[in-house]
Amino acid sequence: MPDTLQAQGFNDAQEESLRIISAEPQNNEQISDEELRPDTLDTFIGQPQLKAQMKLFLDAAQLRGVAPDHILLAGPPGLGKTTLSMIVAHELGVPIRVTSGPAIQHAGDLASIVSSLEEGEVLFIDEIHRLPRAAEELLYIAMEDFRVDVMVGKGPGASSIPLTLPRFTVIGATTREGMLPSPLRARFGFTAHLDYYPTSELEKLILRSADVLGIHVDTEAAYELSLRSRGTPRVANRLLRRVRDWAIVHGLTEVNADAVRDALELYQIDSEGLDRLDIAVLNAICRQFNGGPVGLNNLAAMVGEESETVETVCEPYLVREGFLARTPRGRIATGKAWSHLGLTPPNDVTSLF
Ligand SMILES: Nc1ncnc2c1ncn2[C@@H]1O[C@H](COP(=O)(O)OP(=O)(O)OP(=O)(O)O)[C@@H](O)[C@H]1O
After folding, report:
1. Domain check: are 222 and 109 in the same one?
2. Active site residue 82
3. Do 66 and 165 fall within a single domain?
4. Which of 28, 35, 41, 79 has most ligand 1 atoms within 8 Å of its beta carbon, as the pocket-test mutant?
5. Are residues 321 and 344 in the same domain?
6. pTM check: above 0.90
7. Is the ipTM of this complex over 0.90?
8. Burial of 56 (0-12, 13-18, 19+ CB in 10 A)
């Protein structure tokens, strides 16, 4: 009988802690994301190269007195794509219309949005890689020729009337740049890739968010939080809120490093930002499979999770942080994983890394 997570008592309350380190927004988090969004490039923390490029790009458009070219923002969830698009509109002093690939079901939905845009307006399309095909084709023409063809009538008598659109700027955001068809990708004049944030920048971000939320957080506490934030602003802000709750309940007026450690221990987030599922995965590879290699399905069965969850929720961070390696024969635990678990790798395993 496999030693699964359920068998180890991985219950709903513990699953809750899984979601704390997820980079995806949860429940009503869009609302709490809003209050922490910086609204200028100067207050947007980190990504220095991207900010410098973006500033030049926007300044040039403003000096030329035209709407900037279309912008593609690519990168993992929670790194600030939506925030940057709001900043672009704010810096240009123009309104922004927000939609997303999954919200547009028919080409007509997109036609009605683009045909109601004002001159210079920003159209933000989140998850642009999920637009339906017909909408994508309509978008090609709208982006390139600022035109939309409106179909009148049905069947053989149908005809299309071209409607000229004002110049506007599309900002597309995607977590899956590779899924964008190349004709769509080619229509963006500027593509920005967002990277995971180093801890030094997450610290600044946490101190800024603490200020906005009216919490006193000392620098050591900000550092401890940044270590556990998986390089992701959304995770940093979420952990900060959970630590704030802990501080309120414990009657603290200032959050210090001990409060961060104690609060996050309660949520089963360790010093490297690994949660219970990450640890279960590493434990399974080291203890049950002698360090690997082990196939994804076996591994997922061992921890009692869907393969997809293991692959998309745990692995990217474990691989990025050097705890786990993917090889053609399966997943292997690295030396860092063994030492993080306080285990000694067997001799025949050390040759694998
Ligand atoms: N560079 C930054 N400086 C300050 N706060 C940031 C930064 N990047 C992101 N944030 C904050 O992190 C949260 C998540 O950011 P945002 O919604 O922009 O991410 P996203 O990349 O659009 O995520 P998704 O792909 O899930 O839509 C927001 O509260 C935002 O204010």
Report:
1. no
2. yes
3. yes
4. 79
5. yes
6. no
7. yes
8. exposed
